[in-house]
Amino acid sequence: METRLTYVLSILFIIVGLSLLFGIRYYREKNKQIYNERIRFVKASSKKLSQILQLNSTYHFFHLENPRVLKYTCRSKAEYDHFDYKAFFQNDIANNLQAYLDLIEHAKRNLSLYAEYMNKWDQIMSTHSEQDRQLYLQYDYFRIMETNLCQDACQHPVTAILVIVEKHYSSPQGRNIYSEAQSFSHQETIDIVKSTIKRIEEKGERERTAAYQRQMVTPKLRYQVLKRDHYRCVICGAEQSDGVKLHVDHIKPVSKGGKTELSNLRTLCDRCNLGKGASYDPDGIN
Ligand SMILES: [Zn+2]
């Protein structure tokens, strides 16, 4: 008698359980159907949504990579430890200057367009026509669904630059892996781009000056220097009859701001001149 009761109860339990399960499933499915139907209905009849889509088609924002990630793999732990994020970033800017100028310009353009766009978006969202009011009254879900759909359709362009510089290092056997990053904000990026442009310009200016100073060594000046130094190398004393060639050399190199004037010029033989390079020798005999 007892076993039979247990048996019946178990069967009953299973039946109740299964119907609950299917019931919930059915209920969920039904809800999903209702939801989808409502979405379709709101999409088809919302004037606001079609206005937003119309607005979208007239605003074209620049698609910007955000954040812009620069990666560097260090060759040693020491390099990793002493890695200079800013110097690495400056170098990337110097190599891709036009790309960075475009990036800044496009972010700026996006920002001003976005302000305009959002104004119009807000205006659309806050103006209710008679038809809108009717729909809101008739369908309690309409307004909230419409708002969600419009928010989903709203464009959010990149208006501020973010650059992330990552450094990586993994030890030879790959036992230790290191990784760190530093980010640069919109304003920091603009400042570094500006200072990089300035550096490039100054370098060009220095090079132009150096070329000019070299050109200033006229035959007449050359003769004056050679004569003053008695036609001998001021370092080793060699003269042309020793089989060397004599050069007129800038003591302080033009690349370092040395001027073309008698006090900064000296006679060197080709051997001594070669050994000197562009290094500044303040003890240079004059
Ligand atoms: Zn010499």
How do the strands and helices of this protein lay out in sequence?
Layout lengths: L1 H44 L1 H12 L9 E6 L3 H5 L3 H11 L1 H30 L3 H9 L3 H12 L9 E8 L6 E8 L1 H30 L3 H10 L17 E5 L14 E5 H7 L10
Parallel strand pairs: 1-2
Antiparallel strand pairs: 2-3, 4-5
Bound molecules: zinc ion (ZN).
Zinc ion binds next to strand 5 and helix 10.
Describe, in plain words, how this protein is organized in 3D.
- By secondary structure, the protein is mainly alpha-helical.
- The chain has ten helices and five strands; from the N terminus they run ααβαααααββααββα.
- Strand 2 and strand 3 form a beta hairpin.
- Helix 4 crosses helix 8 (186-215).
- It is elongated and about 130 Å long.
- Zinc ion (ZN) binds at residues 233, 235-236, 238, 268-269, 271-272.
Brief write-up:
The protein is mainly α and 286 residues long. The chain has helices at 2-45, 47-58, 77-81, 85-95, 97-126, 130-138, 142-153, 186-215, 219-228, 270-276; strands at residues 68-73, 163-170, 177-184, 246-250, 265-269. The strands form two sheets. It has a three-stranded mixed beta sheet with strand order 1-2-3. Strands 4-5 form a two-stranded antiparallel ribbon.
